[in-house]
Each structure stands twice: as C-alpha cells, then as structure tokens.
User: Which sequence fits this backbone?
C-alpha cells in the first residue's frame, strides 16, 4: 500500500502540535509541514514581554528545532488551496498533493484597518503586545508614561486570546500606582468593542470587580477607527443600538489590539466559510464539504475562544478523527470547545479562566477558578511555557485529560 501523505499548512502552535501527535500515533505516515518562518514564538509570553517580565528572546525558538523528527519541512508558504484537486500550491509555484490536509495558518492581524496605526505604532507611546516587533516597546512606553490617559483598546471578536487586551491594562495600572504622584495624574481607560468585559459570565463577574477596585474607566461598544499621533488622540465609533457616534480620547500611552481575520489565502479559497475562517464542523474539526480536510488553531472556524490552550483540546480530537477518516471508520471524537485564558489581573495575580463551548468553567485545578491567585500567576509565568515547549509541541497528551478526579 502506498504511504499516506499528510500535509500540514502552518507550523505554529497548532501545526506543530498536530504533527507531533500524528507522528506518535502512526509513525508510518508521511507528514509534511509547509511553514515559511525561520523562528517560532511563544505568543502567550508576549503579554509578559510587554510587562517587563520576559524578554522577547525567551519566547523564541528555531523552527528547525521544533519540527518533529521524521516530519518533512518545506520552508515555504501556501499560495493557493485547490481542495477539489487535492493540491496546495506553494509560494514558489510547487504543487503538493495530499491524502489528508490540515490547515493551521493562524490568523492575520489587520493593522491597516485602523487609520494611521501602521505609521504610529512603535513611537510616541503607541504600542501593542500583538506585534512581535513592538511588544518590548509596550514596556518602554509604560515606563516612560508621564500621566494623562493610559488607553487600552480591544477590537470586535474574534481575536486570539480575548483576555490579552485587558491583562496589559491591569499590569500597567500596577506600575502607574507605584508612583502616587503619577497615579494621581493618570487615568487608565479600557475601551473595548465588546458589550462587556469578558464573554464568559462566570469570569466576567470577578473581572468587573477588578476594574471597579482599580478605578479603571471601562468603556464598552467602542471600536477604534483611527490614531492621530500628532495630537495623541484615538478616534472611536461607539455603537449604541441603531445609532453610532464618534468619540475622541486623548492618550499619553495607547496600547492597541488590532482587528483580526483569516489569512487572505484561506479566506479567498474554497475552504472558507462566510467568515473567511476554515469551514469545519465545530466538534469533529473536519471540513463540512471536503472530507479529507481538517483545521485547528486560530484559522479554524469554530466558535471557541482562540488560544494556544484551545489547541491542546483540539489536537487529540483532530488526530483521532483524521486516523478514523484514513481507516474508513466513523469520526467519533468531539471537541468540547475547551479554551483557557490566564487572566492576569496584576503582577502576581491571575484568574485561570478555563471554559468550553457552553461557557461552563472546566478547571484543571481543584480550586475555585474565579479567584485571583498568586499560584495561577506562577502557572502562567512558569508552568504554561514549560508545558508548551516540552509537552504540547512534542505531542504529549493534554494534561487536563490526565488529571482525573481533579475537576470538580
Ligand atoms: C499577545 C498575545 C497573548 C496571547 N496570550 C495567550 C494566552 O495567555 N494563552 C493562550 O493559550 N494563548 C494566547 N495567545 C494566543 C495563541 O498564541 C494563539 O492562539 C496560538 O498561537 C494559535 O496557534 P496557531 O498555530 O493557530 O497560530 P500561530 O501560532 O500564529 O501559527 C500560525 C503559523 O502559520 C504560518 N503561516 C501563516 N500563513 C501561512 C501560509 N500561507 N502557509 C504556510 N504557513 C503559514 C505562520 O508563519 C505561523 O507559523 C496569545 C497571543 C498573543 C499575540
């Protein structure tokens, strides 16, 4: 029987995890990863880069060192998907065939959707932890802040790590409060396009308390439209039912989380749903129209919260269902929407928000998950990066399933 060909497009958190797990499950498969980048970054660490806890280099590894042994790496990008012909064309024009395709390209950051932002970013206190090049500048900007509004924005969903836009606001507030004169001359504002502080009610309640305790001015339904660096102003459209109005907020520091979308190569392909993301079944992770295509990670069109943690919940399901598809068996594994957002509420404090599609808490630890804890800060700072590099990317099973009895 000819060797079955698996093509994984994207060698980020999702593609590497899927490749490692497939390789462990069935070493005889011919697995290829298509990935243009030389380096891979642990993006969840960028919040702590922006807060001066990590440096960027601590979040970087060489891609070559992460590709699982026995997996072929093609150092190019996918330029076109043709699922009817079962081919992917690479950036150099090479055509790759496959028996099964995994789409794991992550998402696209739409900096250009905010007028003035691409030029403003990286100067004059305009920063973003979502940009590898500018995460360290967030920390510089926080330290250089001399009063006025410290403004943090959050775009419409979906975005990756929906908690990250507010985590940095709490960390910056801690730094500002270390200097009472500066604190008296400052206002932290969190302006979000969402109608509430967080989409999962169980965790929104304690976050509202954090906001109130800190005196943060939280403004909802605020969609950032433009940045005017000359006058240090951010322009928002505020949506109120049928009406919308423009609001201009002056800033001394502006941390922007840009809108996000599926990469163009996916959005313009036959694989896309109307949203642009890959049109997969939210439980089986199989494409709704092309049975030999699967997707996971940020590019997959499921309604889960897009995080690296979600990949840990998705990968075992994806692998089991891909193998069932290869063997001609029914697809039986179901992804429950698991995601985890370590909601840092200050230096040394984190709410470990784990939840599923039903927005039910699914804690991995035998503790009330709605509480701010120092122990969960330690988990965020030390344990999760260790799990990522040493277990997840190497295809080890998801800890949540290996801790029976610990869930309430
Ligand atoms: C500031 C910040 C904070 C975050 N905090 C957390 C957190 O606390 N917890 C958490 O779990 N998650 C967090 N995340 C989210 C997490 O990093 C992502 O959800 C995760 O990386 C998704 O994995 P992915 O493989 O889908 O995408 P990525 O890891 O982004 O990888 C996508 C890969 O696809 C490649 N690619 C792109 N286009 C093509 C193409 N055309 N052809 C081939 N390859 C392509 C890219 O080069 C990249 O290597 C955070 C992210 C950011 C930016």
Assistant:
């Amino acid at each position: 029987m000819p060797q079955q060909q698996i093509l994984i497009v994207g060698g980020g958190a999702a593609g590497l995890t899927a490749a490692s797990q497939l390789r462990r499950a069935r070493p005889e498969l011919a697995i290829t990863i298509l990935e243009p980048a030389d380096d891979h970054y642990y993006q969840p660490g960028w919040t702590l880069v922006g807060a001066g806890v990590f440096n960027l280099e601590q979040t970087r590894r060489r891609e070559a060192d992460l590709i699982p042994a026995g997996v072929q790496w093609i150092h190019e990008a996918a330029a076109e998907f043709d699922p009817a012909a079962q081919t992917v064309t690479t950036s150099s024009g090479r055509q790759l065939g496959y028996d099964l395709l995994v789409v794991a390209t992550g998402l696209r950051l739409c900096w250009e959707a905010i007028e003035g932002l691409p030029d403003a970013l990286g100067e004059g206190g305009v920063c973003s932890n979502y940009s590898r090049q500018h995460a360290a500048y967030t920390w510089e900007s926080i330290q250089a802040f001399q009063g006025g509004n410290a403004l943090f924005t959050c775009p419409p969903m979906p975005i990756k790590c929906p908690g990250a836009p507010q985590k940095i606001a709490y960390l910056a507030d801690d730094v500002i409060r270390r200097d009472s004169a500066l604190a008296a001359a400052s206002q932290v504002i969190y302006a979000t396009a969402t109608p509430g502080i967080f989409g999962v009610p169980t965790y929104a309640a304690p976050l509202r308390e954090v906001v109130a305790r800190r005196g943060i001015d939280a403004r909802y339904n605020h969609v950032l439209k433009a940045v005017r660096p000359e006058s240090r102003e951010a322009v928002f459209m505020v949506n109120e039912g049928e009406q919308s109005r423009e609001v201009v907020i002056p800033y001394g520091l502006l941390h922007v989380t840009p809108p996000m979308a599926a990469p163009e190569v996916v959005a313009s392909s036959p694989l896309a749903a109307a949203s642009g993301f890959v049109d997969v079944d939210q439980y089986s992770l199989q494409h709704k129209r092309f049975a030999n295509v699967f997707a996971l990670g940020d590019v997959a069109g499921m309604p889960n919260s897009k995080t690296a943690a979600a990949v840990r919940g998705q990968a075992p399901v994806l692998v089991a269902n891909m193998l069932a598809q290869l063997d001609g068996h029914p697809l039986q594994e179901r992804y429950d929407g698991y995601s985890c957002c370590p909601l840092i509420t200050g230096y040394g404090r984190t709410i470990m928000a784990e939840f599923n599609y039903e927005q039910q808490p699914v804690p991995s630890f035998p503790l009330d998950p709605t509480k701010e804890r120092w122990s969960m800060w330690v988990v965020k700072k030390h344990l999760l990066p260790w799990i990522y590099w040493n277990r997840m990317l190497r295809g080890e099973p998801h800890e949540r399933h290996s801790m029976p009895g610990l869930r309430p």
Observations:
- The domain at 5-107+262-338 is CATH 3.50.50.60 (FAD/NAD(P)-binding domain).
- Residues 401-408 have pLDDT under 50 and may be disordered.
- The pocket of flavin-adenine dinucleotide is lined by residues 9-15, 34-37, 43-44, 46-47, 77-78, 104-106, 129-130, 160-161, 164, 263, 265, 297-299, 306-309, 311, 340, 342 (CB under 6 Å).
- The first helix runs from residue 13 to 25.
